[in-house]
Amino acid sequence: MNTVKYIYNGGLAFSEEKDMQRLSKYAKEGWILESSAFMGFVYKLRKGNPTDLVYNLDYRMDADDEYFSYFQEAGWKLVCSFGNQIYIFAAPVGTKPIYSDSSSLVEKYEQEKSKMGTYALPFLIATLVFFLAPMLGFGTLLPLWLDKTLFIFGMISLIPLIFTGLPFIGYVLRLKRINKK
Known about the structure:
By secondary structure, the protein is of the alpha+beta class. It has two domains: 4-92, no CATH class; 102-180, no CATH class. The chain has helices spanning 12-28, 65-73, 102-141, 144-180; strands at 4-8, 31-37, 42-47, 53-59, 77-82, 86-92. The strands form two sheets. A three-stranded antiparallel sheet has the order 1-3-2, covered by helices on one side. Strand 2 (31-37) and strand 3 (42-47) form a beta hairpin.
């Protein structure tokens, strides 16, 4: 019998609530979140006793003992973290949510949006420069090898742009939804 199961993370910027609900559903079936794997893209579940748990996620760059004791006193147990800045907590069903009002949610996602925007901006600028320079006529002034090199650098800079720009967009959209309520 298999005692470990891996499930994909739907992308925290876009499906945080769905992922937490899915983890709760798995816990009811006896698959309890143990850790994250593959750079946070996958959740590792271990077979155990079916349990009614709710999961909640929080972002904190420099978490200290006071931060963790606050959640522990509120009934939340740390389950795992991604890169020491994203934390998943679990608690029995009925425990008061970590973020119970929209202003604290806005603050949580504003910080993440700002961080992702700061990371994404240089890659956006680099990608635009590398791709647009040849397209705007500079390509005719450049040797073919340099034109191709710019294209390659553009493709390379596109990768980190996707991994920072998409979460930025996700947090912007999430904040719009929260502010509409």
